[in-house]
Sequence to fold (403 residues):
Amino acid sequence: MIIDDVQSFSRDFINFKPFRTSGRKAKIREAYKLLTGKNFRVSCSTCYIEALMLIVNSQPMASRNYELKRGVLLQAFGDASKTCTNDTLTDELAEWYMKNQPEKIIYFSKLPPWYKVVSTPETGPAKLFQTNRNFARRNINETNIVKGSSEPPKIVIIPPKVTEAPKVIEAPAEPVAAEPKKIVRKTSKARK
Amino acid sequence: MTIGCNQIVACILKNCENLVPGIKDKAYLINYDCVDKDASTFDANNPLWLTQLALKTLSPPCYAFCIEGYNFSNEHKVTMVKKTYQKTWDHSFVFRLFDNTPEDKLWIENLKDSRFVVIIENVYNKQDATLGNGRTVFEVLGWDFGLELNAAERDANSDEMLGGWLLTTGTSDKMKESSVPLSYFVGGTITATKAALHSLLAPCCPAGTAH
Fold:
């Protein structure tokens, strides 16, 4: 469908000028006419952005927590239903891979905010830290995520922080320096 | 130094399939810097079998950009280059643009200064029930250094090209590839390979490509 097609390149069209090709502009015009029934003003350059906003907002965009790098095909041995690319990835599938094959984290380009990949000098590059309250049910134990190296970095789970009530610490009484006397000048109004 | 490498360890038997020449009219160009070599994988027993080609997540976004020829207008050749101590490989990919719009000219100007990896699709599709059908279909050129534009020519009076562009790409003059083009075969099936290739494609590629 033409609207889905326009939605797929909308972000690139807005952000990068080389992506504003005549072919894509034609698709925007076509989608605009399909939605509104009106003809598009071809000469108006900003109208394309406005039309794009209208087209993008016309349909709820499917939002995913996970995305794969382009070109990656995930497979689970013996289970064809788990085969997916970025085009066919769902959050459920991604969750399954996170739970059962966490080493495939390197193939993901987008992760939910509760995952954090960091590198430290002690542990080597690319460590995965999972920091939300769901970490317990995911049951991801220390697992190698990079194959081939002798000492691969490991996935480390950080338990969620427990927010404690702040303790009130009384500061020791310190001798307070005598404040200099303030000199208050009486104004003429005060006199009155 | 590795002991035992570079030795012949297997036989080549007669191929009972009909060998079909040529590559298809559609090829895919990927900017060299976009290839995520850390996330790309090879077969454990064969370093010339690319089992995963992943792209980096950069801005502007990385894609495989299509070029479409016409009537077998794309050409590919690989030749060995013998040097004093080592032998390297020259990858060549020739394609033709049957147009001359300002967009085409800008595209060629950008191509002139870039390095890129090319995925080609061979017509030859060997049927092999044991190892998987379609392992001979897709190949990747320029994995080590990328290809570059070595020649561009437009003859307005050409009978064959009718004023279109003839573009010759290949490895650079000095830095040659260390191996022959890589076979690209993902997931053990040609269907999975096409699905993986499809996920590489830029939005400008026509829908339903990677066939």
In short: Chain A touches chain B through 28 residues (CB under 8 Å).
